[in-house]
């Protein structure tokens, strides 16, 4: 590459002197130790090797963006490395994105759907205390519920997604989709997680929604010998990784789209969680997938 860049500067000098001073090309090529044929090829395609390489790279970056418009330049860089075997730095990808006017989907603020119970059976302390690191699988789980809308004519319908996320590898341990934001939704999610990881005894962190402060939920957590933890009132940041997952899911596959069939919406959710667990590279996992 260094020799190509040096030759490119020589070609530029020869071209400029030939056009402005009418100096003959052949003697200048000999003096600057470049071949006449290589110079002639450069005249037909007057781009630096770096520029030509960036042009080719930009095509790949554009293809990645078209397939995944949610990806910012950092994730595009990771995709280049893992999928296309092109190891380039963040700044170079950022420059190309700016030149090509490539931007990721706009983030939307999270809307909380937490409903506090009028008479909570048990309210846990914030044991997790924003320590979102974990040294082993199934030592810290976080959970929450979010809602999605679909439309039949002018009627607005909703489905609710309950999920449990492992803070060690950020995988979704279990999830359930329902038309009702109720206690069975959360209990079923917990039961699925227990079936998937029967020996797990993690810190189990949630907000103070009525499902999580319910007696049946408390009994399930106690029977599993887990430690219950809850966010402080009005502090969604206490459950940051779960809120972050909702943001990723909705930004990449929900915002900007209008679903007119429930099946299409639930399929989108199911497909995304499979992609998130098995195909979406994460820098916190050293550019690997959770599973």
UniProtKB/TrEMBL annotation:
Source superkingdom: Bacteria
GO biological process, one term: DNA integration
Domain Integrase catalytic: 133-291
Species annotation: Enterococcus italicus (strain DSM 15952 / CCUG 50447 / LMG 22039 / TP 1.5)
Name under which the protein is recorded: Integrase core domain protein
Protein role: Involved in the transposition of the insertion sequence.
PANTHER family: INTEGRASE PROTEIN, TRANSPOSASE INSF FOR INSERTION SEQUENCE IS3B-RELATED
InterPro entries associated with the record: HTH-like_dom, Integrase_cat-core, RNaseH-like_sf, RNaseH_sf, Transpos_IS3, Transposase_IS3/IS150/IS904
Example GO molecular function: nucleic acid binding
């Amino acid at each position: 590459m260094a020799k190509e860049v040096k030759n490119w500067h020589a070609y530029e000098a020869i071209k400029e002197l030939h056009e402005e001073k009418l100096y003959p090309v052949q003697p200048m090529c000999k003096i600057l130790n470049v071949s006449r044929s290589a110079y002639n090829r450069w005249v037909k395609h007057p781009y630096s090797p770096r520029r030509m390489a960036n042009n080719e790279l930009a095509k790949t970056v554009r293809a990645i963006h078209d397939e995944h418009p949610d990806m910012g330049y950092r994730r595009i860089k990771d995709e280049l490395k893992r999928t296309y075997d092109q190891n380039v730095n963040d700044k170079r990808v950022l420059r190309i994105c700016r030149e090509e006017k490539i931007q990721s989907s706009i983030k939307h603020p999270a809307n909380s759907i937490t409903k506090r119970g009028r008479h909570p059976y048990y309210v846990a302390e914030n044991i997790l205390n924003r320590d979102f690191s974990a040294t082993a699988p199934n030592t810290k789980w976080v959970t929450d519920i979010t809602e999605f809308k679909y439309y039949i004519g002018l009627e607005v319908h909703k489905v609710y997604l309950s999920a449990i996320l492992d803070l060690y590898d950020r995988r979704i341990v279990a999830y359930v989709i329902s038309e009702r934001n109720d206690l069975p939704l959360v209990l079923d999610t917990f039961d699925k997680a227990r079936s998937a990881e029967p020996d797990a005894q993690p810190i189990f962190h949630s907000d103070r929604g009525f499902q999580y402060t319910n007696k049946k939920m408390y009994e399930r957590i106690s029977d599993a010998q887990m430690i219950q933890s809850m966010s402080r009132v009005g502090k969604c940041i206490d459950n940051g990784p779960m809120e972050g997952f909702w943001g990723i899911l909705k930004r990449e596959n929900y915002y900007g789209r209008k679903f007119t069939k429930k099946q299409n919406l639930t399929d989108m959710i199911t497909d995304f969680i499979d992609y998130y667990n098995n195909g979406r590279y994460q820098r916190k996992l050293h550019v690997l997938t959770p599973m």
